[in-house]
Amino acid sequence: MAYDQSDEDEDYEIEVVEEYIGDYGSVRSIVREALPFELMATIGGVISGLILSGMSNELELIPGLIVITPAVLGMRGNISCTLGSRLGSAIHMGLITKIDRNPELVNNVSGSLLLSLIMSFILGIAGHFITIALGMQSAGALTLTLIAVLAGVSSGIILSFVAVLLALGMFRFGFDPDNVVTPAIATIGDIVSMIMLFLAAKVVLLI
């Protein structure tokens, strides 16, 4: 019987893949990789709360700002975390290997930024009318929309850059981006969004 090297190579590749998949999906691997970043996410939420507590003057001077603040944080987390997940999937499939003008990378980042712009505009308008409907004062649709767009787009640009670096960096260091990028972006996103919201409110007050 002839020796078939190809069969042996194929069996070896199957064993390697099965071993990788087993480690990839193990509880130990998931907890080991995700737990530190989940703890960071909790701490990040506390830091965001501290930043919000320091915005008392802006919240008083811009009626309706408190209404759009949770939505800005939620929108940023939803869009940026989705970007991180998509980047992780693309990296696993070999579609993205480095930072360059890769169509997959460009399309994901561009789509994320466009969503940030559209949703920030809608948020400002909705925040104004919902505030009025609830019988509360509003700084006006233009003011709230300007703040939402400035905060949403600026934080979106920063977090898109961070998401790309994290996804590629974690993969190269042997971590699964799906376990790491989403909680990390959620943490950084809350902090960055609050800072950008604070700065946007400052800019609007100066205009």
Quickly describe the structure:
84% of the residues lie in helices and 0% in strands. With 207 residues, the protein is mainly α.
Class per helix and strand makeup = mainly alpha
Span of the ends, CA to CA: 86 Å
Strand content: under 5%
Characterize the biggest β-sheet.
Answer: none
Overall 3D form: elongated
Q: Helical element count?
A: 7
Task: Tell me what the structure shows.
- It is elongated and about 50 Å long.
- It has helices spanning 5-24, 27-53, 56-61, 65-92, 103-133, 141-172, 177-206.
- It has 207 residues and is mainly alpha-helical.
- The mean pLDDT is 79.
- The protein has a single domain (5-206), classed as Orthogonal Bundle (Tetracycline Repressor, domain 2), CATH 1.10.357.20.
- The protein is built from seven helices and no strands.
- The protein is 84% helix and 0% strand.
How are the elements arranged and paired?
Blueprint: H1 5-24, H2 27-53, H3 56-61, H4 65-92, H5 103-133, H6 141-172, H7 177-206
Helix pairs in contact: 2-7, 4-5, 4-6, 4-7, 5-6, 6-7
Keywords: Ion transport, Magnesium, Membrane, Transmembrane, Transmembrane helix, Transport
GO cellular component, one term: membrane
Subcellular location: Membrane
